[in-house]
Structures are given as structure tokens and as C-alpha cells.
Specification:
The complex is a heterodimer of chains A (about 100) and B (about 150).
Chain A: H1 5-11, H2 22-37, H3 46-52, H4 57-72, H5 75-92
Helix pairs in contact in A: 2-5, 3-4
Chain B: E1 2-4, H1 6-13, H2 19-29, E2 34-37, H3 38-56, H4 61-76, E3 80-82, H5 86-99, H6 103-115, E4 118-120, H7 124-134, E5 138-139
Parallel strand pairs in B: 1-2, 1-4, 2-3, 4-5
The chains are: A mainly alpha (about 100), B alpha/beta (about 150).
Chain lengths: ~100, ~150
């Protein structure tokens, strides 16, 4: 994979100094893993994954920490994805409340 | 007094570079001044973990998932839980009808407005709209003041 570090960071809205929404960054990190490896559920060692990405060291470190944590307990990512989907469904079902 | 939105809880509960910022802010404000709405508990339990757990019932994974549920409930129970009252519901209707989206956030905003409290959220997109329609104040504890 070739990827400009700045583009990678900007395209996924990484913002290490300001902090990020854990919900979004985690899902994005998992999407990146899926994109890179073409697999969704197979755990990839976090350091292997981070090394694959042509990114700056702090991005790699951050990705490794996030993905490592979620590989060890992937249910959390699913919980957050469920919450996100539920919010989306609610927004699609807006009705005026009398 | 402050009400934590779900995205702030996710920063607290799961790995995030911003976790220490939120932990520090809760300590600064005093944990007794920080509440979780029952609406957020609903979101965490019924929208978040129950669908995962339901899919794994009668499979070996259910053991892990029940364990995760225990951990989640322990984390939630570290906070004071704010009820959702009839007064809150009346205010929710006004806010939600004006905003037109983000029903759960509008309920948090209603609870904050009826008590003159502040919502803590990282979702400035929805809450700036909610503030414009309802006047409810919000703060983001997951960012540094200078960022």
C-alpha cells in the first residue's frame, strides 16, 4: 500500500493533539485494517498492522494501541458500531412529536 | 452540574488518546457533579451490547459477551444515574421538533435544560445546532483548551 502520511491522517480525520471521538476513530481504525488486509474479523498483530501503514511514527503508535486493544477484546468495537447504527436509524425515522 | 454524552463515555471506557483529558476534567469538576443520564445507559445497554449478546446466545462466545456486559455495567455504576422525568420529556419534544434529528442528544439536552446543567460532549456538530435551537450549553472535555 502506498499512502502519503498526511493524506492518510487527514483522510481519516486523525487529530492526536486535540483528541478524537473514541467511537469514530476506533471504527475508522478497524476500517483501515479491513482496507489494508482485506479481512474484517481476523486479528492482525497491532505492530504488524501499524508497520504496514506508511504513516508517521505517532500515527503508527496510536493505531497500534487502538487496534491492539480492540484485537484483544473486539466486542467493544461491535458495541460502538451498534450504537452508531442505532443513532443513524433514529435520525432516519424522525417524526414530529405531538 | 454536568451530563456526559455517550461519545465522552466511549473515550472513558475504551482506548483513546483523549482519555486522560476527560479523567482529569472529571476530577477537576468533582465526580459528584458529573452524571450519566438513563438515556445514555439505555444507549449503551440496549443499542450497544444487547444486540451483540443476543447474536451469541447458545454459542461459546456468550460467556465472553456476558463478561463484557458485567464490565460495562460496573463502569456505568461508577456514576450517578440521572432519571428522565415528565418535565424532561416535555422539554425534549420542543427541542427534538425544532432540531429534527439526534433524538438521544435532544433528550440529554432536555435534561440539562430543565435543570440548568451543561452537557459534556465531543459532538459539537449536533450540539451547536441544539444550542442554537434551545440554548442548552455544552462543553467538550476531550480537547485541550488551546487546540
Amino acid at each position: 500500500m502506498s499512502s502519503n502520511p498526511t493524506t492518510l491522517r487527514e483522510s481519516f480525520d486523525f487529530n492526536l493533539t486535540a483528541g478524537s471521538i473514541a467511537q469514530n476513530i476506533t471504527i475508522k481504525a478497524l476500517k483501515i485494517r479491513e482496507w489494508v488486509y482485506g479481512v474484517k474479523d481476523s486479528p492482525i498483530p497491532a505492530d504488524t498492522f501499524a508497520a504496514t501503514i506508511n504513516a508517521t511514527d505517532d500515527t503508527k503508535q496510536w493505531l497500534a494501541s487502538i487496534i491492539g486493544a480492540f484485537d484483544s477484546d473486539p466486542i467493544y468495537a461491535q458495541i460502538m458500531e451498534n450504537e452508531r447504527e442505532a443513532r443513524k436509524r433514529m435520525d432516519e425515522q424522525f417524526i414530529i412529536i405531538e | 452540574m454536568y451530563i456526559l454524552d455517550n461519545n465522552i463515555l466511549n473515550i472513558l471506557f475504551y482506548p483513546s488518546p483523549a482519555r486522560q483529558l476527560v479523567v482529569g476534567k472529571i476530577a477537576e469538576k468533582g465526580k459528584h457533579n458529573v452524571w450519566l443520564s438513563v438515556i445514555t445507559v439505555y444507549e449503551k445497554i440496549f443499542n450497544g451490547i444487547i444486540p451483540v449478546l443476543s447474536k451469541s446466545l447458545n454459542k461459546p462466545e456468550e460467556v465472553t459477551h456476558f463478561g463484557t456486559m458485567v464490565v460495562l455495567m460496573e463502569k456505568i455504576s461508577e456514576f450517578q444515574i440521572l432519571p428522565f422525568t415528565e418535565t424532561d420529556y416535555s422539554e425534549f419534544k420542543k427541542i427534538y421538533n425544532a432540531v429534527g434529528k439526534a433524538a438521544l442528544d435532544c433528550r440529554l439536552a432536555a435534561s440539562a435544560k430543565t435543570r440548568n446543567w451543561t452537557v459534556v460532549t465531543h459532538d459539537s456538530k449536533d450540539f451547536s445546532r441544539i444550542k442554537a435551537k434551545s440554548g442548552v450549553e455544552y462543553e467538550d472535555w476531550s480537547v485541550t483548551p488551546f487546540s
